Amino acid sequence: MKVSIITSCFNREATIRQAIESVLAQDYPDLEYIVVDGASTDGSLKVIREYRDRISTLISEPDKGMYEAINKGIRAATGDIVGLVHSDDFLYDAHIISDIVERFEQTGADLVYGNGLFVDYTNTDKPVRNWISGNYRR
């Protein structure tokens, strides 16, 4: 299964590198990475361009906010699975996407979601909140 990951960004120079590196560190081989930048005016685009050779699609143009940027990314995506890693988020470890694909294959699900760990901005090794997803119901 091909996986498309979308990162939307606007003026996130301080956090975009960690988001990008967490996606590029994944051990899953069939990964398409799409970054949509809303014409940032800080150094975000400079950081993003450092990884240009490993980003499948880079869109940098003005938009009307995060949701429009995400929709641009979805339109560009060619994967069987589409996921989001926001510009101030990062993936927990290098196996997350492999684990998610495995759950899709095991269950035949159309949607997979899980828990989130909120960490201290200045010390990402320090959890401040553990968001536990609820049980799914139609």
Describe this structure as you would to a colleague.
The chain is of the alpha/beta class and 138 residues long. The chain is built from four helices and six strands. It has a four-stranded parallel β-sheet with strand order 3-2-1-4, with helices on both faces.
Brief summary:
The protein has 138 residues and is α/β, with parallel strands linked by helices. It is built from four helices and six strands.
**Intertermini distance:** 25 Å
Pattern of helices and strands: EHEHEHEHEE
The number of helical runs is 4
Class computed from helices, strands and strand pairing: alpha/beta
Strand order of the largest sheet: 3-2-1-4
Oligomer: single chain
Q: What low-confidence regions span 5 or more consecutive residues with pLDDT below 50?
A: none
- Kindly estimate the percentage of residues that lie in beta strands according to DSSP: 15-25%
Q: What is the mean predicted local confidence, pLDDT?
A: 93
**Care to count the β-strands?**
6
Write the topology of this structure.
Elements: E1 3-9, H1 16-24, E2 31-37, H2 44-49, E3 57-60, H3 66-76, E4 81-84, H4 96-107, E5 116-119, E6 127-131
Parallel strand pairs: 1-2, 1-4, 2-3
Antiparallel strand pairs: 5-6
